[in-house]
Amino acid sequence: MADENESEIDLGEWSDFITFYRRPGRTGREFASESELAEQLRDERRQREEQRLKRREAYRRYEAEHRDEIRRRQRERYHERMANDPEYRERQRANHARYNERHRKTSSTPALTEKKTTAEKSAARKKAPPEKKKAAVKKKTAEEKAAAKQRPQPEILDAAQIEERENRRKERARERYRERMANDPEYRERRLGYWRERHQKRKSDPEYRASKIKAAQRYRERHKDDPEYQARRKESNKKRYVLQKKKTQDPETIIRLYEFWKQQYEKMLSDIEQESRGADAVNQKKTTADVLALLEERTPDHDSAKTSPSPPNRSPRKSTRQ
């Protein structure tokens, strides 16, 4: 494909040739001659160039049609970054100062030592604009200044204002989250499942539990001299005590606890029975019904009244068995 004179090699065609032979599945024998291959590669390169020019022209048309909107968005991003990024603001100001210093216009007024002649002063007076032009120029300047004041100026915020803005953003995010949790059942179930899984993992992690206990101890030590903290803790302890007392005195809670421990006791005996099923024939004859009957006959404190000595001012508990 290359000519005998290397100085006449077309670099574009050579690049197309290399690109073609790097394609997977190409052997180089698909074309009858090198001229046919070069022609196809030229067509492909021409199509790529036309597509690139079309994209560039389309973007230029879009920019010409929406130039004001594009510039407005650019200004908004610039002002927002100038307001929220102190390092960027300082860097931009330094760049502007360097640019103004480099392109500073020299004063066109003559030196004080140079004195104008009478003819030059007369010519300057003749060239001076009349009063109407001066008034128009002054009015236009005032309008430009007023328009410049109405344009969005970069807002300079201190640390407290930046923190307040961040808190507002977080509060809006929380509102959106609460709204989605209320209106999207799938999202709510997914989040709750994730929370349950994380809670179970953390609850079984001894290091996490120890760290939480230490953190609570540090917090109490840090606020031990704070009267507000002591009052809050006293109130919370009172509420917890009242709630616990109410739970222990609630008949439904008592019944539920009784059923729970009954199931636990039954499970324990069944495990013991399974372990000793092949070893002891007596244990094989004991059934779950016998265990439940035995459990019904026992007192709630499990024979503690029989084994432990009775208090001095209380008569020993009588057995319920006949």
Task: Describe it.
The chain is mostly helical and 322 residues long. Helix 1 (11-21) crosses helix 2, helix 3 packs across helix 4 (86-102) and helix 11 packs across helix 13. The model is unreliable at 1-7 and 302-308 (pLDDT under 50). Among the domains are: 10-89, no CATH class; 159-222, no CATH class; 252-301, no CATH class. The N and C termini lie far apart (117 Å). The longest helix is centred in the first third of the chain and has 32 residues, at 34-65. The chain has helices spanning 11-21, 34-65, 67-84, 86-102, 118-127, 131-150, 159-183, 185-203, 206-222, 227-249, 251-275, 281-285, 288-297, 304-307. It has 14 helices and no strands. It is elongated, with a radius of gyration of 45 Å.
The gist of it:
The protein has 322 residues and is mostly helical.
Describe the SSE topology.
Layout: H1 11-21, H2 34-65, H3 67-84, H4 86-102, H5 118-127, H6 131-150, H7 159-183, H8 185-203, H9 206-222, H10 227-249, H11 251-275, H12 281-285, H13 288-297, H14 304-307
Helix pairs in contact: 1-2, 3-4, 11-13
Write out key terms for the chains shown:
mainly alpha; 73% helix
Class per helix and strand makeup = mainly alpha
Q: Helix and strand string, N-terminal first? A: HHHHHHHHHHHHHH
Give the overall silhouette: elongated
Distance between the termini: 117 Å
Q: C-alpha Rg, in Å?
A: 45 Å
> What share of residues are in beta strands?
under 5%
Q: Mean pLDDT across all residues, rounded? A: 75
Helix content: over 70%
Catalogue the unreliable spans: 1-7, 302-308
Largest beta-sheet details = none
Record field, number of beta strands: 0
Number of helices in the DSSP assignment:
14
